[in-house]
Amino acid sequence: MKEQSNNTTTILMVGNPNVGKSALFNRLTGANAVVSNYPGTTVDYTAGTLIEDHRTYEIIDVPGTYSLKPRDAAEMVAVRMLDEHRDATVLVVLDATKIERGLYLALEVFERGIPCIVALNMTDAAHDKQIAVDAAGLQRILGVPVIATTAISGEGVKHLADMIRKAQAADISAIRSRLNGQEQNRRSMAGCGGCSGCGGCR
After folding, report:
1. What is the DSSP letter of 14?
2. Which domain range does residue 44 map to?
3. When you count CB atoms within 10 A of the terminal residue's CB, does the N or C end of the chain come out lower?
4. Within a domain: residue 190?
5. Are 175 and 143 in contact (CB under 8 A)?
6. Cα 106 to chain centroid, rounded
7. Which helix (H) or strand (E) holds 176?
8. pLDDT given for residue 179 in this prediction
9. Each residue of 61-93: pLDDT tens digit?
């Protein structure tokens, strides 16, 4: 993960609207958050700080978007923020009840080659709808850390905060191979108990 000179790592939270991104942001940052207007627009974004295991993260809740091909002002701001923070890590937030919808955006982010981690949020709603949540299986396919969370209750948030440091760039060609049933040989990842093959232990 690339870090700023002041030893603070920028984390951009990216996801579709209504995936519980703001609730997850509040869980990660607590009360010390600042709401600002993106320059030249009326679009709001929120920034806060997370300190985890002696690491400091500036977390920015990017306006919700369905795609990196913007169709309105909020989506345009989301794309600009990604462009402006090229050294950031991206926390992609997915709705566990509508994973396919969120994966379109996730893959667009992955294509930028930046370190990523995925929060599979709203797992409580998925369970209520009897939708199976397989974070480990999704992690094997995507090759980046995937953490199941429920922002409302706080379930999984501590684990997510700890795993941010293991964010990594996805390999799009490897994802395509796994989706086509062509499992590639995984690198040895000694030291990661219960490893699902994301490679974040390196």
Report:
1. E
2. 8-179
3. C
4. no
5. yes
6. 8
7. helix 172-179
8. 82
9. 999 999 999 999 999 999 999 999 999 999 999
Angle, helices 172-179/99-110, rounded to nearest 10 degrees: 140
In a domain? residue 145: yes
Distance between CA atoms of residues 61 and 77, nearest Å: 11
Using alpha carbons, list the distances in angstroms from residue 174 to 115, 182, 197.
Answer: 16, 9, 12
pLDDT averaged over every residue in the chain: 89
At 121, give phi and psi (nearest 5°). Answer: -90, 170
According to DSSP, the residues that pair with 10 across neighbouring strands are: 58
Q: Which residues of 173-196 are buried (b: 16+ CB within 10 A; e: fewer)?
A: ebbeebeeeeeeeeeeeeeeeebb
The torsion angles phi and psi of 124, rounded to 5 degrees, stand at -65, -40
Which CATH number covers residue 171? 3.40.50.300
Q: The tokens 């990842």 sit on which residue? A: 189
Report yes or no on 147 lying in a domain: yes
How many domains does the chain contain in total?
A: 1
Do 125 and 179 form a contact (C-beta atoms < 8 A)? no
Residue 106, token pair as written in the block: 């996730």
Q: What's the predicted TM-score (pTM) here?
A: 0.87
Residue 154: predicted pLDDT: 95
Q: Are strands 116-121 and 8-15 parallel, antiparallel or unpaired?
A: unpaired
Q: How far, in Å, CA of 140 to CA of 196, rounded?
A: 6
Q: Three-class SS of residue 34?
A: strand
